[in-house]
Amino acid sequence: MTPEQFLELARVLPEPLLLVSSDGQVLATNQPVADMLRLRRQQLRGRTLFELVTESTNDVVKYLQACSSSRAMVIGSLTLRKNDGQTLICRSQGAVIQPWSPESSALILLRLESRTLASSNFVLLNEKIDELAKEVQRRKQAEEALLKVNQELEIRVEERTIALQETLNELQLTQTQLIQAEKMSSLGQMVAGIAHEINNPVSFIHGNLHHAHKYTQDLLKLVQFYQQFFPNTPPEIQEYLEEIDLDFLIQDIIKLFQSMKVGTERIQEIVKSLRNFSRLDEAEIKQVNIHEGIDSTLMILKHRLQASHKYPEIKVIKKYSQLPNVTCYPGQLNQVFMNIIVNAIDALEASVVNSQWSEVNPQTTNNPQIKIKTEVIDEKWITVSITDNGLGVNEEVHSKLFDPFFTTKAVGKGTGLGLFISYQIIVETHKGQLSCFSVPGKGAEFVIRIPVS
Ligand SMILES: Nc1ncnc2c1ncn2[C@@H]1O[C@H](COP(=O)(O)OP(=O)(O)O)[C@@H](O)[C@H]1O
Ligand SMILES: [Mg+2]
Questions:
Q1: For the segment 36-70, what is each residue's pLDDT rounded down to a tens digit?
Q2: Which CATH number is associated with domain 3-116?
Q3: Cβ partners under 8 Å of residue 283, min gap 6
């Protein structure tokens, strides 16, 4: 394009256009350029670009070179020196329209755009972009906040559910404990009531037995006296004497009274054990002889220790030490002895079913037995250990032994509360310790450690 052709074209275009050579000569401009510079067009003739802008010659040359060696539009920035002495920052778009040749340098068309105009568009665009970015940011934050709230809510719901489940479990446990405690207390009342009712008649039977025995002896003596001093008895009496076999009667009546005495004594002992065991009058803390509690418990469980058609006898070996009286809740402590001894009996019976005792021989030590040992540890502590040689406890069972409702027994037979309640009575109420030692298949030992006071 020649400068003339360019001018022809540029005249009709409203934007400022310059035709420059790559060495900076201004070849042609249109009116908008002159307007921008506040010059007349004639005044631009023969000028160089370096004279019209404030940028260094070096920078301008570099820009023009970039324009002439690129096929694409090259964007730059030029600061125009206006005729009134002010400057005007322009954005320029440069494009080569005639490449360099050995005959002539490259021709470059520059399109100028006042920065104020451009920048206002820019500012607008920037503001829009800014707003958009902020909106995106806001949405992102809202989303994140929502996610966080959601997660927190989920966590809270989960925590609540766990707490509710725990409360439910606790309530169920408390309910069962209450039922159990109520059952034990009414059982205790019943036992104490029956014991009391039996005690009175047995006492007067036992008390009168002595007199009845004596009176019978007196009467028999009287009969003997009669025989001695009136040997010639009428035949009716003689006949009657033979009929009742007086000699046998005299011998037998002594034995009779003796066995009746043993019987009433045994009833009295049982009654004493029942009362001792239920200890209804002793719901409060008391100083008691621990051995009495153990013996009462054993007495009540006697029927399960004796041999039956199903199970051999369970031997109880007591190794009692000299124990001081212990300050405790005697009724509760008896319940612990009962729970542990019943478990030992259950384990021994199960071992019989498991034919652990296929050859029970009372002569050897290899027979079902429960060993009860009491010991003084020091002036503050005593122990009671109850050992059986039954099934024993494996590791898995051992870890759950004192858990509420844990049982390995058949439904209806085990409640899984015995050891749990025992643990509470010993550890929580009496500030003692309850532990279990066992070799599976060999038996189990439960050790109760309680403070003397
Ligand atoms: N002496 C013992 N020998 C073997 N296992 C025992 C013994 N004592 C307790 N266990 C085990 O501990 C479990 C829990 O005992 P416990 O709390 O008294 O509940 P339950 O007797 O109702 O099952 C029993 O089911 C049994 O498996
Ligand atoms: Mg039990």
A1: 899 988 888 889 999 999 999 999 999 999 999 88
A2: 3.30.450.20
A3: 329, 331
Q: Is the pLDDT of residue 109 over 80?
A: yes
Residue 83: name the closest of 45, 107, 50, 52 by CA. 52
Mutate to test the pocket of ligand 1, among 343, 353, 386 (most ligand atoms within 8 A of CB): 343
Q: Where are the domains of the chain?
A: 3-116, 285-453
Using the 8-state DSSP alphabet, how is residue 51 labeled?
H
Report residue 339's pLDDT band, with 50, 70 and 90 as the boundaries. Answer: very high
Residue 305 Cα to ligand 1 middle (Å): 18
* 134 Cα distance to chain centroid: 46
Report residue 356 as tokens.
């652990």
pLDDT of residue 115 exceeding 80, the answer is no
| Residue whose entry in the numeric block shows the structure tokens 């009669």 | 226
Residue 424's alpha-carbon distances to 211, 434, 450, in angstroms, are: 51, 9, 13
**Which residue type is seen at 329?**
Y
Contact 333, 290 (CB under 8 A): yes
Our answer on whether the CB atom of 336 is closer than 6 Å to any ligand 1 atom is no
Distance, in Å, from the CA atom of 324 to the CA atom of 378, rounded to the nearest integer, reads: 11
Q: What is the pLDDT of residues 352-411, one digit of tens each?
A: 877 766 555 555 556 899 999 999 999 999 999 999 999 899 999 999 999 888 999 988
Closest by CA to 188, choosing from 283, 285, 327, is: 283
Cα–Cα distance for residue pair 420/400, rounded to 1 Å: 10
Pocket test for ligand 1, best of 335, 352, 399, 407 (most atoms within 8 A of CB): 407
CA-angle at 297, arms to 295 and 303, nearest 5°: 105
Ligand 1 atom showing the smallest separation from residue 416 Cα: 19
What's residue 121's pLDDT? 67
Q: For domain 285-453, give the CATH number.
A: 3.30.565.10
